[in-house]
Amino acid sequence: MRIEEDFKLDFKDVLIRPKRSTLTSRSEVDISREFSFRHSAGKYRGIPVIAANMDTVGTFEMAKALSRHQLSAALHKHYGESELTDFFRAIPAESTIFYSMGITSADYEKFRRVKETAGDAIAYVCVDVANGYTKSFVDFINKLRKAYPQITIMAGNVVTGEMTEELILLGVDIVKVGIGPGSVCTTRKMAGVGYPQLSAIIECGDAAHGLGGLICSDGGCTSPGDLAKAFGGGADFIMLGGMLAGHDECGGDIEEHDGARKVRFYGMSSRTAMDKYSGGVAHYRASEGKEVLLDYRGPVEGTVQEILGGVRSACTYVGARRLKELSKRTTFIRVARQLNEVFGAS
C-alpha cells in the first residue's frame, strides 16, 4: 500500500485564468481540429466532440444530427448487424462515426461480419471496456490492430500515463480516458476506484502526445466550461453522455411525470442496461451505474450551439484563435468555489 500525496484535480477545482487577446469576437475562433492518426494514417478534420456509445445517446439519429455540425458519435454496440451495415453504407464519406464494440469473441465476430459487408465505410472503431488494465483487453487490441491495420482505433478506459503509453504502442490511435466521472456511473461508489478527471487528462495527454498518440476525455463534463477545461488540459477529443441526453435524437420514450415530460437516462453498467441486454446482473458482480429521469430537452441543435459557443468564448478569454492553441494558452488556477449561487444553482 502507498499513498500519493500530490494534488489530483477535477474540473470543479479550477478555473482558466484570462489573458490578453486580440480577438474581437467569438466568431473569429476556429474550434475544429485536424489530426493524422499514428497507426491508421487516417486524416481527421472536424470539431472533436463525440456522443458517447450509450444506447440513450449514441444512436443513428444522434450521429446524423451531430455530423451536420462536424461533430462525431460513437454508436452503441447493441444495434443489429443489418442495421449497422445499412447505416454505414448510407453515411457520407466525410462523417466521423465510430463503430463500438466490446472484447468478447462474439463482439469480434460481429464486427468482422459487418466490416466485410460495409467495407471502408467503417473507418473508426471504439473498443470500450470499463477496465482498460486487463490482459484480455490488451490482447484484444493487439489482435484487432493486426487484423485491421488501416482502421482508426479509439480504446479505453484508462486514467494513467503508463497504460496510455502501452495502448498507443500496441496500436491504439486515441486512448479513451476516464474511470468513474460520468453522471450515471457509480464505479467510484461501488468499487472505490477512479481518478479526478482533469488530472487524468493532463497526465494521459502528456504521455500520449510524447508518442504521437491522442486522447479522448470520457466523462465528467457538466457544462460547456468543463469542455473548455478538458481541451485546455490537453484532451484532443471529448466524449459526452449526460450533456447530450434527453433530446429527440436519443433512444427512449418521452414519459409524463406530474405534468412534465421526462426521458430515462442510464449508465451501461446499470441494472437497467444489464436487465435489457445481459439477462440481469450476474451473480459475481454489482451494478456500477444508475438510472435517472431527465427533463425532455427537444432537438439537440440548441444544446450543440450552447456547447460550441462556450468553448469559443473560452478561446477568446485566453486569445486562442484556434482550438489547437487553447492548451498552450491555458493557465489553471485552483479555486474553492466555481459559482455564485445566492439565487440557486443553475
Question: Using only CA atoms, what is the Rg?
Answer: 20 Å
- Secondary-structure-derived class: alpha/beta
* Number of distinct beta strands: 15
* Shape call: globular
Distance between the termini: 41 Å
Uncertain runs: none
Number of helices: 11
User: Roughly what fraction of the amino acids lie in strands?
Assistant: 15-25%
How would you characterize the largest beta sheet?
A: 8 strands, parallel, barrel
Query: Roughly how much helix do the residues carry, as a percent range?
Result: 25-40%
Task: Give helix and strand order, one letter per element, not per position.
Answer: EEEEHEHEHEHEHEHHEHEEEHEHHE
Average per-residue pLDDT, rounded, comes to 93
Give a brief outline of the structure.
The protein is an alpha/beta fold and 346 residues long. 33% of the residues lie in helices and 19% in strands.
